[in-house]
Write a structure and sequence with these properties.
globular; about 300 residues; 6-stranded parallel beta sheet; 7-stranded mixed beta sheet; single chain; alpha/beta
């Protein structure tokens, strides 16, 4: 939780109340995303309106504990998970004990899916799905996933492999290499060993069909995008694509803004339950260690970090 003149900290706030058409969720888990890190740092205050005190966090899983008289789709005791859109002014969040349903995306949690796993799905999973749809690869196409060990990247690798693509993933040798290969990557490029784009070009002189980049901005992204051949596609989660410049050489680029929907969350959860999608959780933290979780995310993760309430 943050106020304009203070860093993020755990503070007491009144429990939210539920309106006639709302539900209230007792949160059991909330995952950490890059958006949360930026918000906690105060960097978003100049970019987006905030209503203080602002609670950090987008993803959640928990149990419905109150339902408004005008709401019939959920009942007290239902296990749910979902996503709080980052619609200005930022106010509601999930690093908390309770969340009032005021325009959030909320769906039933499968009984066999833990709260911890469910909370790790929404933003990373929805964003990965949007990236994969944007680059639209098919069987035999070659796609590069930069940031393949992160929350979004690790899911994107699996979804691309499911579509028959040949996935080139960036990862360090050792545990990271083994991790992304297990997810379905067919080639690994060591991002600590020098120019990743040139390393890929040395193996794929004709370029690649698609690029998903969750790491690079500015010139670094533009350099990676040079790998994409004429008629190819590129997607970035960091707003890094110069869409017109890439279109000038017949590359379709998309700046992805993660937009989880109930349909996406349900489909992703079904895959996790069915064993066709793996959500890697590196470590969990109790809610009162949220600042430590934010710091750990900023230092780099393999998969997801989750707060358990």
């Amino acid at each position: 939780m943050t106020v304009a003149d203070q860093p993020a900290a755990i503070v007491p706030l009144p429990d939210p109340r539920t309106g006639e058409d709302g539900v209230r969720v007792r949160i059991r888990a909330a995952s950490v995303n890059g958006f949360d890190v930026y918000q906690a740092s105060g960097a978003l205050i100049a970019m987006m309106p905030h209503e203080f005190p602002t609670v950090i966090g987008r993803d959640f899983a928990g149990v419905v504990d109150a339902v408004g008289s005008g709401r019939a789709d959920f009942a007290v005791g239902d296990e749910v998970f979902g996503f709080v859109p980052s619609t200005p002014p930022l106010h509601d969040g999930t690093y908390a004990e309770y969340l009032a349903d005021t325009g959030v995306v909320i769906v039933a949690k499968p009984a066999s899916l833990s709260f911890t796993l469910a909370a790790a799905i929404p933003l990373a999973g929805g964003t990965a799905l949007d990236c994969v749809d944007a680059v639209a690869v098919g069987p035999g196409d070659t796609v590069v996933v930069v940031g393949a060990t992160g929350g979004v990247g690790s899911i994107a690798v699996q979804l691309e492999a499911q579509r028959g693509a040949s996935v080139i993933a960036t990862a360090k040798p050792g545990d990271e290499d083994a991790f992304v290969r297990d997810l379905g990557a067919s080639e690994i490029v060591d991002y600590t060993a020098g120019d990743v784009a040139e390393a890929i070009r040395s193996q794929f002189a004709d370029g690649v069909v698609a690029l998903i980049d969750t790491v690079n901005r500015g010139d670094a992204f533009a350099h990676m995008a040079e790998l994409v051949r004429d008629g190819g596609r590129a997607a970035t989660t960091l707003g890094a694509a110069d869409i017109d410049a890439l279109a000038a050489r017949n590359v379709r680029a998309t700046n992805i803004v993660g937009a989880p929907t109930s349909e996406k969350l349900t489909a992703l959860a079904d895959q996790v339950v069915g064993g066709t999608l793996r959500i890697e959780i590196q470590v969990t933290f109790p809610l009162d260690e949220a600042p430590a979780a934010i710091a750990a995310f900023a230092a780099g993760t393999r998969g997801k970090l989750v707060l358990e309430v």
